[in-house]
Write a structure and sequence with these properties.
This is Zinc metalloprotease. Belongs to the peptidase M50B family. The mean pLDDT is 84. With 448 residues, this protein is of the alpha+beta class. The longest helix has 32 residues. It contains 14 helices and 15 strands. The protein has 3 domains: 198 residues, no CATH class; 74 residues, Pdz3 Domain (Roll); 71 residues, PDZ domain (Pdz3 Domain), CATH 2.30.42. It is elongated and about 90 Å long. It starts with 7 loop residues before the first helix and ends with a helix. The strands form 5 sheets. The protein has a 4-stranded mixed beta sheet, with helices on one face. Strands 11-10-12-13 form a 4-stranded antiparallel beta sheet.
């Protein structure tokens, strides 16, 4: 077992993006609880970004509330008087209820307070998506624009797809955006793909365990970049790469790979991946001259050359058009994540592979600071935070909301002792999941 080489600059950039993203999400989530508690005349004792066991980095008391920043960057909290929460303040709960306490308020008010953080996260996701559409538009590749069809990797070929196939529909339903196809296959239990091949329409049946295979083995399947393009001239050569050392230059055009004629770009990339650690011979057209270039392919199968593909189609929005479009996109993301949770806990996925902790989440961010990618991930994480907090686990907002709904229906309020025990059980479940997810991160770092 060996630890992967660490690029500390990349780690720092990813960590900074994660901390900034979580700070925004946590502050606004907790603000939802805070402002609704204030509306209903509850006393808020603390409002903290990050957790503060034993001490805090910064704190200042204004009125009845202490505002601060903790030193454990894993979340945040508001402490509302008379509420059984992670503080487990039993001394306060042993005293008679006071008018300004959470437990003294009607069940419907307590329900609104508990759901407010979730609602703020959903609204934040809608807002970010809307502003992104207004700023950058919606970039996608129309499925019917792939003139030369898809690139079929080994798994795609195993299920019956071929390079050059043009995808027409999934289970008879057309998909406008090519980027949506892989996720639809994973989440919608697609049984067959209809393709056009050599002028004929065929239906390719998909195996029932395809989702499990793709997720558990981290296999790439029809990713958004898997489209065929005619081999263009090399657009860039990475300094110090195998291609640069072999003498390839910008503007060169590869016309043969180990003697086999090349027409499409995947006829370069796929055999390169199959030639890791080997020397390959490329026939290169430079201007009007043809020459042979021997390239020693490194162990990662990356020669270090890139070509310019056709730009995606971009839909631009005015400010007012972006608002409903952002809400629609947010709703699609919410639905997608709910489906992912069903797959995660439905037995199709190995939980040790499907769950990630802070390291796994940080790795979602790019190695260089990219505001578009940052806001896209922040919006997605906001939706995830909303759904996760809605789970009916006692220590989460959803658990507290469930008890409020029970009280509203039955007219019976759960006792304080019951709530204490439920909170303890919920915290144990959450801590166990956190340890499990963080353990997965560590295991992956040391994985062969």
């Amino acid at each position: 077992m060996t630890l992967l080489a660490i690029d500390w600059a990349t780690v720092g950039i990813k960590a900074a993006q994660l901390i900034l993203s979580l700070s925004i999400l946590v502050v606004l989530h907790e603000f939802g609880h805070y402002i609704t508690a204030k509306w209903f005349k509850c006393r808020v004792e603390k409002f903290y970004l990050f957790f503060d066991p034993w001490f805090s980095l910064l704190k200042k008391k204004i009125g009845d509330t202490e505002y601060g920043i903790g030193w454990v960057p894993l979340g945040g909290y508001v402490k509302i008087s008379g509420m059984i929460d992670e503080s487990m303040d039993k001394a306060q709960m042993a005293e008679p209820p006071k008018p300004y306490e959470f437990r003294s308020k009607p069940a419907w008010q307590r329900l609104i307070i508990m759901l407010a953080g979730i609602i703020v996260n959903i609204l934040l996701g809608f807002f970010i998506y809307s502003m992104m559409l207004w700023k950058w538009g919606d970039a996608y590749r129309p499925t019917d624009s792939l003139q030369y069809g898809i690139v079929a990797d080994s798994l795609a070929q195993t299920v019956g797809l071929q390079s050059g196939d043009k995808i027409l529909s999934l289970d008879g339903k057309k998909v406008a955006h090519f980027e949506d196809i892989p996720l639809n296959i994973l989440l919608d239990d697609v049984k067959s793909i209809q393709v056009s091949r050599a002028g004929q329409t065929l239906s390719v049946a998909l195996p029932s365990n395809l989702t499990s295979v793709i997720i558990n083995k981290h296999i790439h399947f029809l990713g958004a970049s898997d489209f065929r393009i005619k081999v263009p001239a090399i657009d860039s050569v990475q300094t110090g790469s195998a291609a640069a050392k072999a003498g390839l230059k910008k503007g060169d055009k590869i016309i043969a790979f180990n003697g086999a004629p090349v027409e499409f770009w995947d006829q370069v990339t796929q055999p390169t991946q199959a030639s890791k650690g080997k020397t390959v011979n490329l026939s290169v057209l430079r201007g009007t001259d043809t020459s042979m270039v021997a390239v020693n392919v490194p162990a990662d199968g990356i020669m270090g050359i890139a070509v310019q593909s056709e730009p995606p189609y971009i839909v631009h929005y005015t400010f007012w058009e972006a608002l409903p479009a952002g809400v629609a996109k947010g709703c699609r993301m919410l639905g997608s994540y709910v489906k992912q949770l069903k797959i995660l806990f439905g037995g199709k996925v190995n939980l040790s592979e499907g769950m990630s902790g802070p390291v796994g989440i940080a790795n979602l961010f790019p190695a260089t600071w990219d505001w578009q990618a940052f806001w896209s991930l922040t919006a997605f994480l906001s939706m995830i935070l909303a759904i996760m907090n809605l789970l009916p686990i006692p220590a989460l907002d959803g658990g507290h909301a469930l008890f409020c709904i029970y009280e509203m229906i039955t007219g019976r309020k759960p006792g304080d002792k019951f709530m204490e025990y439920a909170q303890t059980i919920g915290m144990v479940i959450i801590l166990a999941l956190m340890v499990f997810a963080f353990g997965n991160d560590i295991f992956r770092l040391f994985k062969k």
